[in-house]
Amino acid sequence: MSKELSAQLAPLAAPVPSPWLRATGIVLGGSALAAVCAHVSVPLYFTPVPLSLAPFAVLILGLLLSPRMAAATFGAYLAEGALGLPVFAPSPLASGGLAHLLGPTGGYLLAYPLAAALISFLFRRTNRRGGRGFSAALISAAAGDFAILAIGGLWLAVLTHASAQSVLTLALLPFMAGDALKVAAAAALAIGSQRLRRHNT
Question: CA torsion sign, 175 to 57 to 143 to 71?
């Protein structure tokens, strides 16, 4: 009798992770990944915008998370940076905090939540319509990356009153080749992760 009672009570005694707790863990883990990627950066002498792996974090998390979770992750990342935590790419023009968000690279940073949510939305919508996995991931990540570059370039143009040609030279063209590699790598990793999860289930 006692064994039967123990068997019935066992599922009740097992800890069930709260959805809120799980979501918090994902957001904090994703923002930590973004911070690590941001510190893998190379300053360029001709532009205030460094080469950084931070956009790669936006691409991969946008492909892996839901639109809401992706946006929340990068909203938390921006909040951490605004509070002064060292999560942004090092810059000689800004010491961190709000000054960094309002500096030359602020447009790129502020675009992250939007771009991550856009990537997630496009990827999921394309997959539901029977889109091919890698192609869908590639197109979605490319759209999000373009959004980051466009918003970042527009911000820099407004901030510095630069001409369109200068903005192309400072904020877009130097990053296109590297970003193409990030897009392809993020798409490949996301599809690989998706297939691995399906295999394990």
Answer: negative
What's 177's domain CATH number?
1.10.1760.20
Q: Report DSSP state, residue 169.
A: I
Q: How many domains does the chain have?
A: 1
- What length does the chain have? 201
b (16+ CB within 10 A) / e for 143-161: bbbbbbbebbbebbbeeee
Which residue range forms the structural domain that includes residue 123?
2-200
Q: Residue 59 is which amino acid?
A: L
Partners of 51 in the beta sheet?
42
Q: What is the pLDDT along the chain (201 residues), one digit of tens a residue?
A: 455 545 554 444 445 568 889 999 999 999 999 999 999 999 988 888 999 999 999 999 999 999 999 999 999 999 999 999 999 998 766 667 888 999 999 999 999 999 999 999 999 998 776 666 899 999 999 999 999 999 999 999 999 888 888 888 888 999 999 999 999 999 999 999 888 877 776
Reported pTM: 0.87
Structure tokens at 178: 């590297």
